[in-house]
Amino acid sequence: MKKIVLTTALLAGVLAHAGGFRVSLQGVKQLAMAHTSAHAEDASVTFFNPAGMSFIPSKLSVAAGGFGAKSIVTYQNLSTLESYETNNPLGTPVYAAIAYKVLDNVSVGFNLSTPFGSTIEWPSDWAGREIVQRLELKAFYFQPMISFKLAPWASVGGSYIYAKGSVNWDKAVTQLGGTLNLTDDKASGSGFGIGFYFQPDEKWDISIAYRSPIDMEAKNGKVSFDISPALYPSLGLDAAGTDSFKATLPLVNEYTVGVTYKVTPKWLVSADFNYSGWDRYSQLTLDFANAPIGNQPNDPTVLVSPKNFKSTQTWRVGTQYKINDMIAARAGYYYDQSPYTDENFQAETPSFDSNVITAGLGFNIAKGFGVDVAGAIALPKSRDVKNSFNNFFGQAKAKAYYFGLGLSYNVF
Amino acid sequence: MKKILISTIAVSALFFTISCETDFDTDVSSIQVTNGEANFSKYVSLGNSLTSGFRDNALYIDGQNDSYPNIMAQQMKLAGGGAFVQPLMADNNGGLILGGTVVQATKLYIKSFTNGAPDIVNVNATPTTNVATKITGSLNNMGIPGAKSFHLITPGYGNIAGVSTGTANPYYARFSSSATSRVLDDAIAQKPTFYSLWIGNNDVLSYATTGGMGTDQKGNTNPATYGPNDISDPAVVAGSIQTILQTFKNSGVTKGVIANIPSVTSIPYFTTVPYNPLTPAALGANLSVLNASLYTTLKQALTAFGAGNRINLLSATATNPVLIKDVSLTNLSAELTLALTPSLGAPTAAAFGQIYGQARQSTPGDYILLPTKSVIGSTVSGAPASINVYGISYPLENQHVLTEAEAAKVKAAVDAYNASIKSLADSYGLAFVDANAKMNELNGLSGIQFDGVKYTAKFVTGGTFSLDGVHLTGRGYAIVANEFLKMINQKYKSTLPMVEVNKYQGVTFPK
Q: Which Pfam families did the record assign (chain B) (predicted)?
């Protein structure tokens, strides 16, 4: 009865949040259960908590998978009665992980993931084209890690994160009668992750993890203008119409506490709490070498756009039921909150308060070899757009679907 | 136990799926645009160049298509509005010919940039729009470039024979119904159900753009005696507008919109060139030479006559004002000649006296006109070689500068016109557009933002004013159209949608 109360409370009461350009697609098993974290079944746990490696049942575990993410955002303006819809390409986040027990109480692992990214593509003549026509953000996390089993029921782990990313941003420059493209594929940054993982008894798994913030620094970005060449000299552009820029995109820190309770040997229920430090993203500063297309009175080559993101929480609940030795059925639900208010709506990273329903199946094909599928549907709430900095007003809504296919192999 | 838990999850999930509002309350595609209390089936616009779609110092097809009445008419079509026919020009270069002679030049365009500054010239083409080619039939846009308020009610303003003598307007001559017709009557003949009127600008603008070459006719209510660059008497402007409104009312047309006129000194024609454009760098070595040979001499002489504040020495650290001729100053020619004769000799002293008798340095209250930019620093033919540089050693002429005193006359006239326009709008129950406030907003530091694009009244780069510095671009006219539409909706409870300003044409840069 206590569990019923707990579950109901999670679902009905403390609805909460994540969002921004964070992509919660790092494990197919996990996604099927609302992307919860306290699952040490295979190497995919490494993204969520390096300490989880110590509780993977086998000596060597390999996991990899990929997702398809499809979203459509619609913007409409009640004043002009115009309406526009994105034509976003299918997003394809991937992950790969390996974990190996060097000693009984020491595990090492490596995780590759794409925890941040988004591609938004609006019609090139849409109302907000001065803000964005197309924006592609990508970040790869490379994480070597180590975990120590402190006791049969407790472990600690840590990872080093090397992040590599790219940005590719098209937007109109109406006053110059053309468009520009901002690109940098050499942005990088580094950070770390630490975690604790507990199995106090055979019924409970508890995961506590922290991933540090990372500043992705684009040190030598390139801005290319598609405008009249007659304007190049006065903008300080080279003969090809290009200039360089510097920018820093913050990838936020995340605290995660996850719990799994095995109700019966076949049935488990998981819940997660995430806290993401989006309040770091207070503004985006683009510092151009020469082009005076900024907005700072004392330095017209610096463009500062207020973002005013706020930190978010996400509450997740998922479950898995082993129908038999071969097949496991999974389902989950989470509520994702947008990291900004209507007044700070960002057309280049549209974000909504969303209900997300997830489901999936796991197949144990042969000894140690598993195939997992998962799907999710997000039901973002429509919202008002009231960005007075850009004088951009209207309404926005979205639809999003995710599906994933994962493989895992647990050896020895 | 298990079932209870599963069903709890299922029910909760269902509850949230249903309760979350994923769709728009109102989809824009399902919104029906309504005309409210107004009838837009036949909309006729009256006005001057701003109404015609004039820009880049010419009337041409693209500009006409981006005229604010045409922009509005497209929105009115969503609420029962009919076709909007304009007296389209023959080409996109602008300009007019009459009897084989070019009577209006082609439009301006940016040929290139030199050191970041646009090189603005007329399109090198012969106009193909012939004033004598009459446009007949239904016509909705009666905006006539150059028209003053009283011209709309002056018979014969469209008489082709009067074009060359200046008593008639070539643009109206193209579509006037007869040699004696009035613009107003031709508008009434279209049987409008709704009208817009934006007039009065030219009653003061040509005085300002010519640096005050005309006369302030305040008190003279007979426009037949006015010169082309005079300031119309406010009573003439108010009377003309009232006649127009009353005539519409008498013919049963009671619904429309009227706009006041922008303070002319909020436009780039007056605000682009600063009063103090002479940098120490530009003056170079001449700075000390000028101070020693000219400015000191003048200042000493003028000080003796109590007018020492007319000239100060040039600064080597700050930007310097230009020399101008201010006809409102007491003419000290004779005094100067007398004072300078001992040191300069009689002939030179006489020349100095004549040139600098009403000279002074410009002050922040003076407006240097946009075309004057190319005059400053140019050589004055016929002047003594040592003092023949315009604005630096030789005063700019009256037509180059709108002085503070002249600007005050302009402001007084605009204020008087606008007071009348507002009270007429109220007494005739018309929608009222405060165009003056909108232009001031545009001219302010923060400008006007629309969907991420910042618009200001800055010349070329502000995006709203065309290359003549007086008329708007398509985007500027779209901002104006939105203001009109907003006020029409407010007055007549219609729901005409606004337009996306950024969709219209801005300043065109060379390819």
A: Lipase_GDSL (PF00657)
